From TrEMBL:
<dbReference type="InterPro" id="IPR036873">
    <property type="entry name" value="Rhodanese-like_dom_sf"/>
</dbReference>
<dbReference type="InterPro" id="IPR001763">
    <property type="entry name" value="Rhodanese-like_dom"/>
</dbReference>
<protein>
    <submittedName>
        <fullName>Thiosulfate sulfurtransferase 16, chloroplastic</fullName>
    </submittedName>
</protein>
<dbReference type="GO" id="GO:0016740">
    <property type="term" value="F:transferase activity"/>
</dbReference>
<feature type="domain" description="Rhodanese">
    <location>
        <begin position="23"/>
        <end position="127"/>
    </location>
</feature>
<dbReference type="InterPro" id="IPR052367">
    <property type="entry name" value="Thiosulfate_ST/Rhodanese-like"/>
</dbReference>
<keyword id="KW-0808">Transferase</keyword>
<dbReference type="Pfam" id="PF00581">
    <property type="entry name" value="Rhodanese"/>
</dbReference>
Amino acid sequence: MFMCAASAEDVALVKPAEVAEYTGNGFKVLDVRTTGEFAQGRIKGAVLVPLMNRTEDGQMVPNGAFEQQVQEKVSTDHGWLVVCGSGMRSARACKILTQKLGFDRESLRDVAGGMQAYASAQLPVEQ
């Protein structure tokens, strides 16, 4: 595990190879990619709450219901690994979780490199 140096509000990053260790210790996976990306493959047991949605013409737009959906689907009773495609959206999602929704940053981990790095490491993906 290592920390991003960008700000004190950043959550710890975990390498894709560490995901199984964290999930084995009770962490759940929050996937903030689009529904289409999620359908192409995900970490086993991941909960989908898209930070962005893709429009019919392919544009990415913010999911206006993100905070509400997190409150409905994501419990604070355990830790969460937050993952996206490459790491950008998960970092933004972690900021929202800590700054707006009151999550303890110690209970969150951002998966470094997102699903691109996870898949490149040939780790298990479910469809």
